[in-house]
Amino acid sequence: MPSIDVLEMEIKNMKKDISEMKEDLKEIKWMFNKLDDRYPTRREFKSVVGAIWFIATVLGVIATILWFIK
After folding, report:
1. What is the CA radius of gyration of the chain?
2. Distances from the Cα of 65 to the Cαs of 57, 62, 69, in angstroms?
3. What average pLDDT score do residues 26-44 get?
């Protein structure tokens, strides 16, 4: 069985490792938040593509109506 000093040292090292992991996670979260501001999400992309598709369809219908009226 390990001595108390060895166990205390192991606990100290584990606490240090955990605090380093917490800092790394904070940095990763900050990087992801920064990316969210820079690139559109999937939902935003789909809504933009949907709006463009809708406008193209409306313009196509108007062009077709005007073509047959002439």
Report:
1. 29
2. 12, 5, 6
3. 82
For residue 70, what is the DSSP state? -
Task: Determine if the pTM surpasses 0.85.
Answer: no
**Distance of alpha carbon 20 from alpha carbon 31, whole angstroms:** 17
| Burial track 1-23 (b if 16+ CB lie within 10 A, e otherwise) | eeeeeeeeeeeeeeeeeeeeeee
Which of 3, 51, 48 minimizes the C-alpha distance to 59? 51
pLDDT of amino acid 36: 67
For the chain, the farthest-separated pair of C-alpha atoms sits apart, in whole angstroms, at 97
Quickly tell me which residue has 């990763």 as its tokens: 28
